[in-house]
Amino acid sequence: MQDNFVNKESNEGNIFQMKKVIKWILDSYVRLTGFQIHFLNDRGERIFSPSSSIRNGCAFCKLIQSSSEGRKECYKSFYDNGLRSAEYGNSYIFRCRLGIITWITPVLIDGEFSGSFISEGILMRKPAPYFIKEVIEMTKNLGIEEFKLREALKEIKIVSEKKVKAAADILYMAANYLSNTELLDAKMRQEKYIQQARISEEIQMMKRKELELLEKEEEEENSFIYISSIYPLETERELLKRVRLGDKEGAREVLNEILGKILFKNAGRTELVRARILELAVVLSRAAVEGNAELEMILGLNFEYIQKLGKIKSIEELCVWIVEVLDRFTECVYENRNIRNVNIIMKAKEFIRANYKKKIKLEDISKVVYLSPYYLSHIFKKEVGFTLFEYLTKVRIEEAKRLLENTPWNTTRISFEVGCTDQSYFSKVFKKIEDMSPSDYRKRMKR
Q1: Which domains does the chain have, with CATH numbers?
Q2: Can you give the pTM of this predicted structure?
């Protein structure tokens, strides 16, 4: 029994050592398929996600998981089906309790189930009215407004069974890749080498500056001032700002600069380096909470990381450890912000659907969600994939199609009914989107 416990603890450590490779797989998968994906630990908890710049998540899944009860139910399903996939030793495609297509692929290390890739958030056919009704009924306990659920359901991608199977096969191959420790070791060595090279560059720069001071024969007092300010407060403030913004890449650059200065000042003194890096971790956790990461999650991560810190012996491992801490805290900021973005986008869409007949300005929409026009435009395009005015056009064209199918009105009247005062422009946009003119669309629908 003791041996099994040791193996399980060892496998968890292996998973976190594989983080760089897992993130690489997640990013590549999203770029290739466009599907949502995460990596779960053996308890069904999400621990790694794709880079924030390329995430292409399911609005419906995000909405459900914005509720603590919804998140709990999802994670329970992930855990149960993760174990099932491990029993099969292959990718397992299933429907979640709300009917959303999900596929999960186990990662086995030394024969032990250690985690899984999970991809979710699609349907294989357009949701029927009864399906929507069932989903609304089943989610009443989550406290989510019905109109938000209906809107999110409309956004779910419809994908063929063949594509789902192909995506599951890709994850199966990725899981097998993770079992190839030689390839993994090479990848992790490369990541460590890159980081150490950057830190070394920083140390060399510090040495050059010190030599310049000596060559200029500056007074001892001035030299002391320089040495004591090797790790300036401004640099730390810049790091914390990047964390609060959820800017992982920018934060990494500043962190490497700080690490170089810490190592230069404390060369060969591992315990002093450990103390300074621990101080950094505490400050980073505070910045993450200030950036609106969940306090409970950050406290849990703090405990987990400090336990790991006690087992680290070398300065190189300390540097790798603090980068892991930084990455995870920054991701927590982004993920929590992402959940809030779902509600902002829903409100913006609701306003557009209620006012599409009017002349809508960007400022009108931004006032409803209490954001600047620029920031609203940025998050809408990032989360939805097209601009606010492209969405407005989409709403108007969908309503125009409904009127063409159900009324005898001519194109001029329909264009006015959907908020377009220029009938020729309306017809041009309609044809561009539907590949046919409004009159041809009407004829086709009457066949």
Answers
A1: 2-179 (3.30.450.40), 184-337 (no CATH), 341-446 (1.10.10.60)
A2: 0.44
